[in-house]
Amino acid sequence: DGGITQSPKYLFRKEGQNVTLSCEQNLNHDAMYWYRQDPGQGLRLIYYSQIVNDFQKGDIAEGYSVSREKKESFPLTVTSAQKNPTAFYLCASAGGSSYEQYFGPGTRLTVT
Amino acid sequence: GQQLNQSPQSMFIQEGEDVSMNCTSSSIFNTWLWYKQDPGEGPVLLIALYKAGELTSNGRLTAQFGITRKDSFLNISASIPSDVGIYFCAGQLRGGGSNYKLTFGKGTLLTVNP
């Protein structure tokens, strides 16, 4: 089955710890994205990557880091510098002749 | 970052009623996308629009790409309980170095009373 997987579905961490969220796609898409969703805020872009070994900051990149070593994978690290890390995190990908973004199921991160 | 103005923010309707929602932008787009998100899940793409004036249907859903390229509309006919969720619009301006980057509206929360 082609698609985007995110793991884990729920993640709990203590304040001050870094945490890495996984995103994998087997759609052969070039571009991948990370969004943060808070109640009533819609989707806000954290980072995106259009090609392996290259990525750009989105609108709210502070306190986050990413890597793109493989086409299929785009992990997001939420660092201790992120002031309000508790949120729902969504990964998406897009590619080919279509500009449509397809989303994974999301990871809900809770930091206490 | 730029955001689209999506309205209404929420809607409460009776099963069987029709629904309309829209998005407007101060900038032009050459792609409009509509997504639906169920609670705790990722958004699912409903309809994609690529041409100004285009009208596209997907079952009971119909979406239109505004002729000015600054707005889009989504209509749901004969609503059913499973239509409940948050509906997002997203606009894209292709070109430059951000061919795949989308700008999202804040969503319309739809509640359907059976």
Radius of gyration of CA atoms of chain A, rounded to a whole number: 13 Å
Please give the share of residues in helix of chain B: under 10%
- Separate helix tally of chain A: 0
Biggest sheet of chain A: strands, sense, closure?
A: 7 strands, mixed
Shape of chain B: globular
Parts with pLDDT < 50 across at least 5 consecutive residues of chain B:
none
| Structural class category of chain B | mainly beta
Write up this protein.
The complex is a heterodimer of chains A (112) and B (114). By secondary structure, chain A is mainly β. Chain A has strands at residues 4-7, 10-13, 19-25, 31-38, 42-51, 54-57, 64-66, 76-78, 87-94, 102-103, 107-111. In chain A, the strands form two sheets. In chain A, strands 2, 4, 5, 6, 9, 10 and 11 form a seven-stranded mixed sheet that branches. The mean pLDDT of chain A is 93. The mean pLDDT of chain B is 92. Chain B is globular, with a radius of gyration of 14 Å. Chain B is built from no helices and eleven strands. The termini of chain B are far apart. Chain B is mostly beta strands. In chain B, strands 2, 4, 5, 9, 10 and 11 form a six-stranded mixed sheet that branches. In chain B, strands 1-3-8-7-6 form a five-stranded antiparallel sheet, with no helix packed on it. Chains A and B meet through strand 5, strand 9 and strand 10 of A and strand 4, strand 5 and strand 9 of B.
Features:
heterodimer; A: 112 residues; mainly beta; seven-stranded mixed beta sheet; four-stranded antiparallel beta sheet; 11 strands; B: 114 residues; six-stranded mixed beta sheet; five-stranded antiparallel beta sheet; 0% helix
Summary, kept brief:
The complex is a heterodimer of chains A (112) and B (114). Chain A has 112 residues and is mainly β.
Task: Summarize the SSE layout with pairings.
The complex is a heterodimer of chains A (112) and B (114).
Chain A: E1 4-7, E2 10-13, E3 19-25, E4 31-38, E5 42-51, E6 54-57, E7 64-66, E8 76-78, E9 87-94, E10 102-103, E11 107-111
Parallel strand pairs in A: 2-11
Antiparallel strand pairs in A: 1-3, 3-8, 4-5, 4-9, 5-6, 7-8, 9-10, 9-11
Chain B: E1 5-7, E2 10-14, E3 19-24, E4 31-37, E5 44-49, E6 55-58, E7 61-65, E8 71-76, E9 85-92, E10 103-104, E11 108-113
